[in-house]
Give the backbone structure.
Amino acid sequence: MAEIIDLRSDTVTTPTEKMREAMHRAAVGDDVYGEDPTMNRLEALAAEKVGKEAAIFLPSGTMGNQVAVMTHTQRGDEIILDPEAHLYYYEVGALAALSSVQARPAQGLHGKKVNVEAIEAAIRDKNIHFPKTRLICLENTHNRGGGSITPPEEMQKVAELAKRHGLAIHLDGARIFNAAVASGRDAREFTRYADSVMFCLSKGLSAPVGSMLAGNREFIERARKNRKMLGGGMRQAGILAAAGILALEEMIQRLAEDHANARLLAEGLAALPGVEVDLAGVETNIVAMETRRTGITGEEFSRRMAARGVKANASAPYRIRFVTHKDVTRQQIEKALDVIREIVA
Ligand SMILES: Cc1ncc(COP(=O)(O)O)c(C=O)c1O
């Protein structure tokens, strides 16, 4: 079979041989009783990596985000988030369906500079007609924002605003280690400005399954109960945790390779006729390519690439999103560029 270069997402990464080995040998117990030693190690390690008191393992980032919202809010509360936030855009309406909260999209919550005034304008005052604003959600790196990083100093401004208004902050840090590695900073410099943080083990970090939600001990205790309510209490989950431990111990620094490959891809694309890439916007492992000037829609472009062995999804009518990761080499990026060159020729 011809080689497939899969740039749809870093979720397609497969576990390393070492992870498979560790999963095979993992000591396990019933995690609902708190008796899985490997899971207990992972949860302690995850909490430490993001500087929080405690952490809990969940089967997916979506469940991590939703359990966080459920734990922060009460029915009828309002939460402020970016209109392109994963929590709002890609989580199947779970905010309404599971937590019965109302989303208040606001601009200015991500990117190199946040817009404190715009965020503040979205906070409700004490009018009897209004819902209670409870939570601000941030996303770093920002998926639909092309993997963009919000610097810690900007997060701090949102945290100060939240504090002034008595609001909590949840950070969707699915790719927080990409943000940390790309900016040469510790993940804790970002996460210290959030009350809770979710991050994924199964994206660039290459574990087969799982995400972590971290926060203070009391919050995580309540999150554990909510996870159980949603059916997310797992039993001998140490099998999965064993891979997660390696993800955190061994796979963070190598994200720099993915970032270098994204840069290579972006520069190659920028040199092609018709397609457009905002080079300054490529900060981590995501590259957004605009196809409008070629007259080829994103869907059609995606089909033409797939026919030549390169997979990437359309993320807007005239946009393709490429995501680099462990299972795509530099050489494959060069091949993908050859394929795209053929299409735009
Ligand atoms: C920013 C962000 N948050 C949350 C998620 C959800 O993760 P999962 O696919 O594990 O549910 C994703 C997945 O792509 C994501 O990009």
In short: DSSP finds 14 helices and 13 strands in the chain. Residues 11, 60-62, 65, 86, 139, 143, 172, 174, 200, 211 surround pyridoxal-5'-phosphate (CB under 6 Å). The first strand starts at residue 5 and ends at 6. The longest helix spans residues 255-270.
